[in-house]
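Escalation from tier 1.

The customer reports that the assembly of two entities below gives different structure tokens on two consecutive runs. Tier 1 could not reproduce it. I'm attaching the input and our single run for tier 2 to review.
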Amino acid sequence: MKYKFFQTQDFIKDDAFILWVKYGKNDAFFQAFLSENPEKQIFIDEASNFIKKVAEAEKLRQPNINQAKVWSLINDNIDVESETATFGFLRQFRSSKWVKFSWAAAAVIVLGIGLNSLLLINNPKKINYSELVATAEKQIRLIEKINNSNAPLSIKLEDGSVVTLSKNAKLSYPRHFEPNKRQVFLSGEAFFEINKNPQKPFFVYSNEVITKVLGTSFTIQAFEDSQEVIVSVKTGRVSVFHQSKVTFADPEEEALIITPNQQIVFSRKEEILTKSLVETPILIKDLSQLTKTSFEDIPVSEVLKAIEQAYGVHTIYDADQLSHCIITTTLANESLYSKLDIICKTIGASYKIVDAQIVIQSTGCD
Amino acid sequence: MNLTKEQEQTLWKHMISGNKKSFEDLYKQYFQALINYGFRITKNENLIEDAVQELFISIWNNRTNLSEVNEVKFYLFRSLKNRILRQLEKDVFDKSEDIDVYLDFLNSISEEQKKIDSEQFDANLDILQRAIAHLPIRQQEVINLKYYHDFTLDEIAKLMDVNKQSVSNLLFRSYAILRKLLKNFTILIFF
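Tier 1 run:
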């Protein structure tokens, strides 16, 4: 019998033994084994104590997520009706476009082609603010604020979130949000500071781009005459997707997620979302929060690790090649790029930004 | 509290045939276990919440295409893990944090040891929790699946995409490290 040769480290890996310890399964068997092999008592005690304690500790290491809240979110999304609610007006918007267009096209359309397939072959057309607002207003009344002054204009929404409009920017929003979501519509540039409410995700519709957040701060630039829509994040996590393709499935599957110092640029012509770093990445942590800010004669990889922490970026390099590169430097309140310039100059390397990551190219140091 | 396999499968069958109550029961049965496990893959609670939410939405919305599964719990854990990993792949920043945790492990172990030495005796479960939090991420996953969620070694191997021997090795290593880390308290904790 295998248990005769078991020690603690063997018992802790044994499926049947663990079930006995936790639930008393096969109790007779293990009791009998113990009385025949009393010298195993010490290993069994040690192993069962370990198993029980770890199980207890693991039960306590639990994230704080509200079961009822998540259930209500699930519920909101599984009924056919409410499933279409969030993106419903987009579909409606599509159809109304189709109606306008259809009179001219009707003559040449062969009966029997479904509306959906027509929408798909229909050339993607730009969506603008006024169309978005007109469509949304069929469901809910909106208030519009326009910033005609040169100074930024801050607007406080029902939930306490604040939107700061740059010059000439327009924002439409309901006085009271719907029960399960917060939706606003933007033209131009604005900075958003959104109060956290996981039960009511916050959506910003700006041209073809939808930005979804639970609570965070970020900037959107969506000028009607511009070829691009740009979303950049200051704090938190934001997901961005575009709506020119009607996806009846979960549109977030197509979403890109960005974190501080990252931005998404949507090319309206090519309909592509691209992730990159913002023009001037800033420190996302206070210098005092960093474990180390001055470095003397240490491998450059250590400094790069600190930079990753400080700016929330990811660096990629060949660790072997950089292993002999030793530098002395300090981290101060400076832009990411000027810091990288200095480091790269010191070790004779260069860097480029690929897909929001910093790639260091080096031939190594002697 | 824990359902038998037969009860699980009955719930699952009823859920597939459109019984909303069974769907809710399944959710209630597994919510805590799923977020507990998700926490071993990422520390990002928003991400775990989104993944659990999307998992259940997708189960209900696609229920007519779902087959009967033998191991409901295994199926749910596997699907949740896939969802979280897919999201983490998109999110480079998040991934780098996980790597950091692993790299910091050796540095922090001695610091933690100092802290542990000065702790009061009555906090020993708390100490164990913190010690576990310092294990490499895959060891955390393996002890969570084995000692808390009661999966067999074979199931864990499938969940973690490794062979059974590796699961066994991971379990042994986490045991060895925890013992070492808590050696001053073995009297309290392990004997």
